[in-house]
C-alpha cells in the first residue's frame, strides 16, 4: 500500500512538473518579414546614432523579402488566373441567362398567343377574330334562313295561286265545253230545223 502511494505521488509530481513547463514555454514568435526586421534591428549593434547590421543578417533578410515578394507575385498571378476564369464563367453564365430569358419570353408569347394562318397572334386578338367570324356566319345564316323562308312563303303562295288558277281554269274549261256543247246542240238543232224546214 505504501508502495502504491509513493507511485501515485511520484506520478503526480511528474505530471505537475510537465504541466508547469508547458505553461512557461511560449510559442516562438512567427517568422514573418516584419518579425525578421525587428530581430535584425534589435539584434544589431549601435554606433553613435547608427545601427550596425551584419551582412549575413541583411542578406538573409533580403532573401526573405525577395522570397515573400515572389510568393506574393505567384499568389497574385494565381488569383488573377482565378479572376480571369471567374470572369469567363460569369460571361458564359450571362450569355446563358440571356438565352434563357429570350427562350422564356418566346415561351410566354407562345403561351399567350395562338398561331393563326402562320402568324403568332395574342389569344385576345384570336378570340376577337374567331367571334367576329362566328358572328358574321350566324348573321349570314339568319339572312339565308330569312330569305329561304320568304322564298318558301312566296313559292307556297305562288303554288296556291297556281292551284286556284288551275281550278278556275278547269271551271272555265268545263264551262267553255258546256257552252260549246250547248252551241253545238243549238247549231245541230238549227241544222236539223233547216233540214226539216
Automatic annotation (TrEMBL):
Cell membrane among keywords: no
Signal peptide: 1-20
Gene3D superfamilies in alphabetical order: 1.20.5.340
SUPFAM superfamilies membership: Bacterial hemolysins (SSF58100)
Chain ranges passing through the membrane: 129-146
Keyword field: Coiled coil, Membrane, Signal, Transmembrane, Transmembrane helix
Coiled-coil boundaries: 62-96, 155-182
Protein name according to UniProt: tRNA (Guanine-N1)-methyltransferase
Species, as recorded: Constantimarinum furrinae
